[in-house]
Amino acid sequence: MKEFIYSRNAVYETLRAKRRDVFRLEIADNVQVKGRMAEIMALASQRKIPVSKVKRAQLDKIHEHNQGIVADVSAYPYSDVLDILDHARELNEPPFVLLLDTLNDPQNFGALIRTAEAVGVHGIVIPLAHTVEVTPAAVNASSGASEHMRIARSNLAQAIDALKAENVWVVGLDQNGETIGEKTKRHLSGATAIVVGSEGEGIRKLTRDKCDIVLQLPMRGQIESLNAAVAGSVALYLAYLNRNS
User: Fold this and answer.
1) Are 99 and 195 in contact (CB under 8 A)?
2) Is residue 30 within 8 Å of residue 59, measured between CB atoms?
3) Which of 41, 100, 121, 202 has an alpha carbon 20 to 30 Å from 130's alpha carbon atom?
4) How far apart are CA 88 and CA 21, in angstroms?
5) What is the CA radius of gyration of the chain?
6) Which positions ≥6 away from 116 have C-beta within 8 Å?
7) CATH 3.40.1280.10 is right for the domain spanning 81-243
């Protein structure tokens, strides 16, 4: 199955990652080939990918925020949980995994992928159904970070069991959990999997019951909670700091 990746960073990282087949590029006939666009053209030339100039209106039909470029590519290559664990072993690092329990917004998904890639998460696990997937919108929201990230689709309960079998500590993130502090931050070090729930419902009961511990971020202001992507990103950075302290 083919799809269209749009925007300069998303197309650039797709080319750089070399995980998808790229069949052709279309660029707006009024675009200036410099900066990131010049880098894209150089990569396309190296891989002998056809490039055609088209009217901007033609690209706008695919997506209004195309930034003058669209790539016709193969479907996203999903991984599996074992591949994520193997990747951690290859790097000789304790596993660092993000599990997303029925997240629905591609913008939130993309933001979490981008943070996860930045802090060295070895892979992300999403459910088999009722969840956002790696769509072109999510690729764009991640600024192309999705193309460098191992993302697996799995039954979350089974995925958690597989992680626990590898001595990975599974930490749920929920506003009704124990507050992260001096006594609890140790749970965000070593082999860790962080579970982030959906935007409205949070972590489902079955998933929550599978977690080794449920934590919440300390809050000092007037609001009760953070956006799922923001909360997840903060937790990932806390784990990153604890893993590398």
Assistant:
1) yes
2) no
3) 121
4) 26
5) 19
6) 98, 124, 145, 149, 236
7) yes
Number of H helices, E strands in the chain: 9, 10
Cβ–Cβ under 8 Å, residues 56 and 26: no
Q: Please write the tens of the pLDDT for every residue from 48-91.
A: 999 999 999 999 999 999 999 999 999 999 999 999 999 999 99
Mean predicted lDDT score pLDDT of the chain = 93
CB within 8 A of 6, min separation 6: which ones? 59, 62, 63, 65, 66, 67, 69, 70, 71, 136, 140
Comparing C-alpha atoms, which of 71, 70, 21, 11 is closest to residue 47?
21
180-230, pLDDT tens digit by residue?
A: 766 666 778 899 999 999 877 889 999 999 999 999 888 777 777 788 999
**Domain 2-74 homologous superfamily, CATH:** Ribosomal protein L30/S12 (3.30.1330.30)
pTM value is 0.94
Domain parsing of the chain, residue ranges? 2-74, 81-243
